[in-house]
Amino acid sequence: MAIYKLQINGQTYQVDVEPDTPLLWVLRDHLGLLGTKFGCGIALCGACTVHFNDQAVRACVFPVSAVGDAKITTIEGLSAQGDHPVQQAWNEVDVAQCGYCQAGQIMTAAALLKRNPNPSTEEIDTGMNGNICRCGTYHRIREAVTLAAAKLK
User: Fold this and answer.
1) Is residue 137 over pLDDT 90?
2) Three-state SS for 104?
3) E strand map for 24-99
4) What is the DSSP letter of 8?
5) Between the chain's N and C termini, which has fewer beta carbons within 10 Å?
6) pLDDT mean across residues, the chain
7) Residues 141, 89: contact at Cβ < 8 Å?
8) Closest-CA residue to 112 (of 24, 46, 67)
9) Measuring CA to CA, which residue among 70, 29, 80 is closest to residue 50?
C-alpha cells in the first residue's frame, strides 16, 4: 500500500491503496464518487471516462500511481450544479435512454469541445468513437455535442 494525495474536482483527497489500483476503484470505492461507471474494465467502452488535466482518460485502466499532481475531474466535478453546456445540451436533446454510459459520454464530449470548440460532424464522430452506447443513441449524442458547441460560443 502507498499513500496518494489526489486533486479531484478541486478538492484534495488522500488514499492508501496499492499503486496499480485503477483510478476508477479509488473514485468509487475509496472516495464515494459514484458518477464514474464501470463498463468493460478494459478501456473499450468509455463508461469510466474522466478528465486527467482536461484530457479524457479511461479510469478503469489508469493506475492511481500515474496520477501524480494532475487534476482529475469526474462527472461530479464537471459543474457544481450540473449545468455545464454539455450537460444542458444532453438534457435538451434528451440523449439518455438507459443512461449508463452517459457520464462517460459527457466527459468525452466536454474534453472534445475543450480542444476543438467547433467540431465538424466527422470530428464529433471521431472524437466520440470509442464510447459505446448500448441503446444506440449516437445520433442524439452527435446532436447534443453540436448544440453544446453552439452554447460554448
Assistant:
1) yes
2) helix
3) 49-52, 55-58, 71-73
4) E
5) C
6) 97
7) no
8) 46
9) 70
Residue 94 amino acid letter: D
| Grid-cell match 464514474, residue found | 36
* Whole-number pLDDT of residue 81: 92
- Convert the pLDDT of each residue in 40-51 to its tens digit: 999 999 999 999
Counting every residue written for the chain, the total comes to 153
What is the pTM (predicted TM-score) of this model? Answer: 0.96
Phi, psi (deg, nearest 5) at residue 102? -65, -40
Which three cell numbers mark 26?
479509488
C-alpha cell at 82: 450540473
Pairing of strands 49-52, 71-73: antiparallel
**127 to each of 17, 59, 96, how far by Cα in Å?**
32, 18, 19
Report the DSSP beta bridge partners of residue 63: 22
Tell me the mean pLDDT in the region 103-115: 98
Answer yes or no: are the C-beta atoms of 85 and 62 closer than 8 Å.
no
**What angle is formed at CA 112 by the lines to CA 123 and CA 126, rounded to 5 degrees?**
30
**How far is residue 84's CA from residue 80's CA, in Å, rounded to a whole number?**
9
